[in-house]
Amino acid sequence: MKRHIHVLLLLLLLAGTAFAQTPELRKKQFNLESSGLAIQGYDPVAYFTINKAVEGKKELSANYNGVTYRFVSKQNKEEFTRNPTRYEPQFGGWCAYAMGKKGEKVAIDPETFKVLDGKLYLFYNKYFNNTLKSWNQDEARLKTQADHNWMKFVP
After folding, report:
1. Which structural domain range is residue 49 located in?
2. Claim to verify: residue 82 and residue 93 sit in the same structural domain
3. Rounded to whole angstroms, what are the CA distances from 12 to 16, 18, 56, 147?
């Protein structure tokens, strides 16, 4: 029994290492401005704490593995710094619907979002095409497919 536990722990450790993302890979695969800024400068913590999309302040920035985030308050910045993976958007900040539907990286409107099961999902919303509405119609299937499709970009 102990041997099985040790093997399982080793496999989990190896899996975690295999899925580790380098700053270079993150910069290449994430939806970032040329400066490395994520979510077009919107505060990732505010989506969770006040359920709103709020632009962060340049002077309240933090870098996590090559990706820069901005915050509306020092408190939000500190919260993010304590647990950045909790607040980062899914699929590198690309449109969740497009990732699920076609496995494509599509730009987003940072004000069109959904927090689901403690995760932030962002969506494209322009020219009468709000993909959040389409996502909501088939969320379970699209989420599963998006999780699968994202692995093509971040092995």
Report:
1. 23-87
2. no
3. 6, 10, 36, 19
pTM score, whole prediction = 0.84
Number of residues assigned to the chain: 155
Tens digit of each residue's pLDDT, the chain (155 residues)? 544 444 333 333 333 333 456 778 787 899 999 889 999 999 999 999 999 999 999 999 999 999 999 999 999 999 999 999 999 999 999 999 999 999 999 999 999 999 999 999 999 999 889 999 999 999 999 999 999 999 999 87
Count of structural domains within the chain: 2
Check whether residue 83 and residue 38 sit in a common domain. Answer: yes
Tokens of 27: 């910069």
Which of 87, 111, 131 terminates a domain? The answer is: 87
Which pair of structure tokens corresponds to residue 52?
A: 């709103």
Q: Which residue has the tokens 């999780």?
A: 147
- DSSP assignment of the chain equals -HHHHHHHHHHHHHHHHHT---HHHHHHHS-B-TT-BBGGGB-HHHHHHTSS--BPEEEEEEEETTEEEEESSHHHHHHHHH-HHHHSBGGGGSBHHHHHHHS-----EEEEEEEETTEEEEE-EETTEEHHHHHHHSHHHHHHHHHHHHTTT--
